[in-house]
Each structure stands twice: as C-alpha cells, then as structure tokens.
Amino acid sequence: MKNGIKFILMALLLSMPAFAFKQNDIESGMKGKIDKVLVVLKKKESNTQKGQQIISMMDPVFDYNLMSKLTLGSNTWSSITPNQQKEFMKIFVAKLKQSYVDKLDLYHNQNVLYKGVKPYQNGRLQLQTELSGKGETYKINYNFYNSNGNWLIYDVVLDGVSIVQTYRQQFAGILRDKTFDQLLVQLKTKK
Amino acid sequence: MKITRLIFIVICLCGISYASSEDLKTIENNNTLENHDTNSSSFEEEFGDTNKSAVFDPFEKYNRAMTTFNDKLYVNVIDPVARGYSKVVPEGGRVAVGNFINNLYYPVRFSNNVLQFKFKNASKETGRFIVNSTFGIGGFFDIAKTNLGWEESDEDLGQTLGFYGFPEGPHIVWPFLGPSNLRDTMGFVGDTYLNPLSNTKEHSINYKIPQNKLQEAGIYSYEKVNKASLHLGEYESIKKDAIDLYPFLRDAYTQHRKEQIKE
After folding, report:
1. A132 vs A107, A137, A153, B95, B198, CA distance in Å?
2. H helix or E strand, kind and range, residue B201
C-alpha cells in the first residue's frame, strides 16, 4: 500500500507538465494547439508521422496517469501492484494514442468551432468545441481539472460519449469474471 | 405545466435522492479546497461506481449475438455496397440524397419538439422544412442551414419519453436497426406513424411514401447505404477502441442518448 501511494505521488510529480494551461488560457491555448493540429493534418505525410507530431503537441495538456487510473477505477487501481499499474499505464496510453492516430483518417477538412469554457462537475471545466463537416456536426468536449493551478485534460467527450467512461465500463465488465493479468493480455493482443 | 413535470421527475428520482444529497455535500466540500483537485474520490463520483454488480442487462446473451450479426452485416454487406456506390455517385449527390431523406423526417422532429415544449425549435424546424422544400429544391439542399444558419433540432419520441422521465429500460439490440433500449424502441414504433418513410398499413397518413413493407425496407436500406457511404471507415475506426464490442457499443449508445435527452 505504501509503495502504491509512493508510486502515485511519483507519477503525479512526473506528470506535471511544463506547458499546462492557467484557467484563463484554456480556450486560447487549446485553440492555438488545435489550429496547429489542423495545419499538420493538411500536410502530405504519412499518418504515423502526422500522428507523432500531433501527439507531441497535445501530450503536455493530457493527464494520462489520471486517465489510466480513472478507467480502472480507484478500487482496482489500489488493489494491483505498482508494477502492474506501470504496465497497464504503458499499454493503455499507447492504445489511446494509437486510437487517436487512427482517427486521423477520418479528417476531411472539417471546421472547428469553439463554444467556450463552461463550468463542469465539482468545479472542473469543460471546453466545448464542434467539428462540422459533410452536413453533420460532432460535439467534442475536453474536460479539464485543476492540478495546482495547471489545468489538465482528464477526459474527452465525443457527442456525449466519454472516453474514460467507455473504457471504465469495459474494464469493469472484464474484471468481473477475469483477473487483472488476463485483462492486460487482452489489452495487449487486441489490435 | 412545469410543476407537473417537476413532480414527475421528483418521483422518478426518489430512489436516488439519498445519493444526490450526498453529492451536494461533496460539492460544498470541494468548494473549500479549490486549488487542489487531485482528490480521487470526487472523480470516482463523476464516473460512477465500478464495483456495483453488472449493468442491468437481461438480454445480454441475445444482444451479443445480434451485435455480432449486425457487425457482420455492416462489414460484409453494407460497407462494400457503400464503397461501390460512393465510386459511382459523387459526394455532392450523396449529400443531397441524405438531405432529401432527412427533410422528410420533418413531421417526427416537429412533433417531438412540440411534445418537449421546445416551441422555438419546432418553429425553426417548420421554417427549415419550408425553405429547404422550396428554395432547397425539394429538400436536396439544406440551404436553411448553410445560408440562414438554422440548425436542425433532432428530436424523436425516445428522447421525448426520456424528457418526461421515462426510464430507458433494458438494452435491446435489433437486427438491422442496431442498439436500442425498451424506451427508444417504443419511441421508434410511435414515430413510424408520423414518419413518411415508413408504412403503417391502414393507419397510414396520406403522405406516406412506401406502399408496403417491402418498399419501406428498400427505402430504409438505401438510406443506410447512402449514410454509410458518407462515413466510410468510421465504424471500423471506432470499433478499434472496443476491447469487447458489445458492452462498448451498449455503453456508447446509452451515454449518447442521455446527452441527446439532456439537450
């Protein structure tokens, strides 16, 4: 247990990014980032190359550690060993990033509309954006929490569907009749 | 009107009123420690308990089988047909067909906006229908949106029932139609009476387009293929996020509908 706490503290310290936003910069900062992402998307490079550039741009605003922890749920998280936590985080974060890169295929010159930062649950904030393309509009909301004055993303909500929640339900379902190690294997083998 | 709705909601929420009073307490607590939000219990609360027994899903076995059927149908039939179709018909044409079909759903959207007291949206829907049917050449062009900025307010009976506090009931996956739940299934059936693209036999209003169930199925399939042709690769890409496809789709559906009802 002590090790677990130590690890979480370490993870939190290491995850303190240098370029997170202050409260008032969330919208302008994200706008700057997303605009840069759109520029990268229009480049004529392979998706892997584009993906790497985009991920390195967005990395500092995401709290991947918290996201990993939330998708497992704190009960499961505290019941596994620090090594298992580390391994899960490695696999899960890689999966999140890969899934993001895969989505680049779906980009066809859509426009991003910024709807502003709104208060969200428990004093957290939500940046609301809309992606509009061929007749349809997708709502993409970024949920931020306050990490000692730095605002970090802990969840992305697409048309009402939360990434964290969807994984959380799947993991909880799997862990109902399988062990954590089996879950790790399933995560690794699933392409 | 509002008061009866409120009472209705209060009755529905009775069961979880204890939980919400707890919520209020934690919100108060949170206000006092504004600068420090690394406390995990408040996050746990946002996403709900993972330890609670499985989601209420009495049809899970059937739903899983039907999800596999729909998945195979999409991957092996709808997707290849849509790909071929997209090579023959240019994108502009497919968008226009999509607009045309969508315009015909106006009676469904209008009535459900009214039923939810969204009168402003209901009149906007009427405006959209008139403008698109005339200047948009029978609905092929959504000029109400592109030129006037009148966005569609997509409401259906499932959302209306949800708006009145009707619980979603068990999740049901229908062949061809995809994920649904008891509430939305009832809503879907109710909407078919108003939907000009479905055939309700002797109960049909005069504006119904299909003369029988076969024609209805034909129109529905064409609508599906046309839609798929505008979203090629999306399903496959989303599917990659699933570790287990059925609960993934079930959960995404439930969350998405909740959001639609909230709006």
Report:
1. 11, 4, 22, 14, 29
2. none
Query: Which chain B positions have a beta carbon within 8 Å of A102's beta carbon?
Result: 237, 240
- DSSP reduced 3-state for B149: coil
What is the pTM (predicted TM-score) of this model?
A: 0.79
Structural domain of B164: 66-262
Residue A103's Cβ-side half-sphere holds a number of Cα atoms within 13 Å equal to 13
- In A73-159, alpha helices (H): 74-79, 82-103
Out of A160, A168, A170, name the one closest to residue B260 (CB).
A160
ipTM reported for the complex, 2 dp: 0.77
pLDDT digits (tens, 9 = 90+) for B86-128: 999 999 999 999 999 999 999 999 999 999 999 999 999 999 9
Amino acid letter, residue B197: L
What whole-number distance in Å separates Cα of residue A3 and Cα of residue A9? 10
CA dihedral B181, B187, B190, B194 (to 10 degrees): -130
Q: Do B44 and A159 touch (CB under 8 A)?
A: no
Burial of B14 from C-beta contacts in 10 A (0-12 / 13-18 / 19+) = exposed
Does residue B45 lie in a domain region? no
Q: How many CB atoms are closer than 10 A to CB B120? A: 10
Q: Which two three-digit tokens encode residue B178?
A: 């995809």
> Considering the domain boundaries, does residue B20 fall inside one?
no
Out of A2-6, A127-131, B36-40, pick the least confident. Answer: B36-40
Q: Which residues of A, range 71-130, sit inside 8 Å of B by Cβ? A: 72-76, 99, 102-103, 105-106, 121-124
* Residue B30 in domain: no
CB pairs under 8 A between A and B: 114
Q: What is the pLDDT of residues B177-196, one digit of tens each?
A: 999 999 999 999 999 999 98
Flag residues of chain B having pLDDT under 70: 1-40, 50-54
Nearest of B181, B55, B51, B118 to residue A79 by alpha carbon: B51
Q: Does B18 map to a domain?
A: no
The number of domains in chain B is 1
Does A134 lie at the interface with B, CB-CB under 8 angstroms?
yes
Q: Which residues of B touch A166 (CB under 8 A)?
A: 241, 248, 251-252, 255
Cross-chain CB nearest to A166 (options B95, B252, B259): B252
